[in-house]
Amino acid sequence: MKILSRAAAVLAFLFCFSGGAWFLSHGGGSDNVLPIGLGLYFIGKAFFVGPMLWLAGEKCCSGSDGK
After folding, report:
1. How crowded is residue 50: how many other Cβ atoms within 10 Å of its Cβ?
2. What is the rounded distance in angstroms from the CA atom of residue 37 to the CA atom of residue 53?
3. Contact 2/57 with Cβ under 8 angstroms?
4. Tell me: the pLDDT tens digits for 19-55?
5. Residue 66 contacts by C-beta under 8 Å, 6 or more apart in sequence?
6. Is residue 42 within 8 Å of residue 23, measured between CB atoms?
7. Between 60 and 45, whose confidence is greater?
8. What is the pLDDT of residue 63?
9. Three-class SS string for 4-67?
10. Which DSSP symbol is given to 2?
């Protein structure tokens, strides 16, 4: 179960980060603030959701359940 929770945390981080990077790369210039804002939001979300899922998996799967 611990491996599954770690994989989910890594996938959540990668999907959110890659989505944010895509929005930033296709922003269309400095006058287009909506894609830039969405990109920064998803990158920030990646740095929050990934570690939170990792820590929740560590807390949930302790002891013999983690093997």
Report:
1. 20
2. 24
3. yes
4. 999 999 988 777 788 999 999 999 999 999 999 999 9
5. 1, 2
6. yes
7. 45
8. 63
9. HHHHHHHHHHHHHHHHHHHHHHCCCCCCCHHHHHHHHHHHHHHHHHHHHHHHHHHHHCCHHHHC
10. H
Residue 26 φ then ψ, to 5°: -105, 30
Alpha-carbon distance of 9 to 37, in angstroms, equals 23
What tokens were used for 24? 């930033």
Q: Find how far residue 61's CA is from the centre of its chain.
A: 20
Rounded to whole angstroms, the Cα distance separating 27 from 33 reads 8
The whole-angstrom separation of Cα 20 and Cα 64 is 37
Please give the structure tokens belonging to residue 48.
């929050």
In this prediction, residue 67 has a pLDDT band, given cuts at 50, 70 and 90, of low
The distance from CA 16 to its chain's CA centroid, rounded to whole angstroms, is: 4
